[in-house]
Amino acid sequence: QVQLVESGGGLVQPGGSLRLSCAASRRVSSFTVMGWYRQAPGKQRELVATITGDTSTIYADSVKGRFTISRDNAKNTIYLQMNSLKPEDTAVYYCWFPSVWGQGTQVTVSS
Question: What rounded mean pLDDT belongs to the chain?
């Protein structure tokens, strides 16, 4: 069973940037979809972005043009580059692999 470990969350001001990382405990085929979800207080968990292969990506409308998902197959790691952050991006961000979730990392956007 693969395990996922996220890192890179924190507190940032509106307009700022953060980069999240998610490392898998074993080799993951580049053809396997992986992604990021988030859950804000009192809200359901929602899709942020997914990546299949190296270039096939899907983004939630709310993050298009601001967030970029990528992967490094040699490191079994996916990333989420988040730019132009807004207070409404505040949430716990979870890395996802089919049937597996990471522990989550808190992202807080506040002045």
Answer: 95
